[in-house]
Amino acid sequence: MAGPLSGLRVVQVAGLGPVPFAATMLSDMGADVVRIDRPGTRPLSPWEITGRGRRAVEIDLKTHDGTAAAMALAEVADILLEGFRPGVMERLGLGPDVLLALNPRLVYGRMTGWGQSGPRAGEPGHDVNYIALSGVLHAIGSPGGPPVPPLNLIGDYGGGALYLVAGVLAALHERQMSGCGQVVDCAMLDGAASLMAEIVDLANTGQWSMARGSNLLDGGAHFYGVYECKDGRHIAIAPMERQFYVAFCERVGVDLPDPDSYERSELWAEARTRLANHFKTRTRDEWCAYFAGTEACVVPVLTMDESPGDPQVAAREIYVTYDGVRQPAPAPRFSRTPAQIQSPPPSNATPVEEVLSTWRSRPVGAGMREGGAS
């Protein structure tokens, strides 16, 4: 475990979506992650990527012995991650008040959809619900069409897992000064709204219309979006800055608005129609070859199967094969302490006593700089 989080101990209470992915990121960066599963949980398969790089223990949290085992892990952990609805961990006797009293240096990361408070806090929901209420979903889609769910990237992963990782690492940094842990309340609703900062800024200054598909970044601009080609595949273009727009206009072979007025939205619709018809005269790969070597910001829209073969993707080894399974490589990258996949998803449970033995053999936070001492 040579990553920048080497020596960090993380307890992940099993769940779906953002918590497993957050644990994956921490593991890839070197943390020792242990997942608490219910007894009899089906072992993960090697292709269940968000379960990689950790051990699993089987604990029945609804029993006295199970609660005691979970408390023993939390007592020597640096971070605990859980994704239950508000109040569930408290009913199990594992709420933050109990565990922080046991281990005052614990960073207790809580992941929910709606947050720990508010009138919807106890309601069920999923990614599309959270991004709908935050204002994100309404902004995505074609003119005259319904909002389009952007997979589950914005709620579960962007506004959920990434904010959870940022939050617990920030709390760890603060712990170096105070010596105290704290609760990180991470809600997908909060995170999705936070991701809208630039769009809200544009709306506040009158530069964003609530009409879908009519704005600079939502496909309304003819110079920022996706076009179908002769073979039914697509290209993505983004010559937004003036010099790149000039390069695009010089190469594309279509009459387009003058570079000095390319931000005038009243010209966008006609220019987009002109480009749409023109791009259907060649295949996707023909267009990419045609624009190669220019600064026109034109690339192919690749499928997940095609992406690993792209020269840029391949050169950076963005996809790797580990344990026979193709998967995204750890990100981001570190110059001295490289991140790495530690292991495939656990195929069987590790005894709790074995985990406790290794964790108790060194002080909490060993390997992490604490209070000015290493």
Description:
By secondary structure, this protein is α/β, with parallel strands linked by helices. It is built from 13 helices and eleven strands. The strands form three sheets. Strands 3-2-1-4-5-6 form a six-stranded parallel sheet, with helices on both faces. A three-stranded antiparallel sheet has the order 7-8-9, with helices on one face. A two-stranded antiparallel sheet has the order 10-11. Helix 5 packs across helix 7.
Topology, pairings included?
Blueprint: E1 9-13, H1 18-28, E2 32-37, E3 54-58, H2 64-75, E4 79-82, H3 88-91, H4 96-102, E5 107-112, H5 127-133, H6 153-178, E6 182-187, H7 188-195, H8 197-204, E7 225-228, E8 234-237, H9 242-252, H10 268-279, H11 284-291, E9 298-300, H12 311-315, E10 319-322, E11 325-328, H13 352-360
Parallel strand pairs: 1-2, 1-4, 2-3, 4-5, 5-6
Antiparallel strand pairs: 7-8, 8-9, 10-11
Helix pairs in contact: 1-6, 5-6, 5-7, 6-7
